[in-house]
Amino acid sequence: MNTLPEKSMQPYDQTYEEYRGFALEGTITDRSLDWFILVRIEPTRPGSPGLIPALLNTFPRSDSVGDAWRFMASLARCAVDEYLDGHKRG
User: Fold this and answer.
1) The pTM is what?
2) Residue 25 DSSP SS3
């Protein structure tokens, strides 16, 4: 089960990427035993369609943090694609 990092934990790294009018804002936290990655997905343009839920996951420390982030960013881009494609069909 994924649990949010404690408030006292400082982010290991933060990332930002724009994709199809949405900001993918990632926060990576080092929790000693694993990497905790939270990705917020928000519109970047006024009038852009609604909200996409944030994604979160944990990865074992044996995984590269770069590989873990690329996986989460890929999931976030898929979520944007599905949301926008579904919104067009409306």
Assistant:
1) 0.79
2) strand
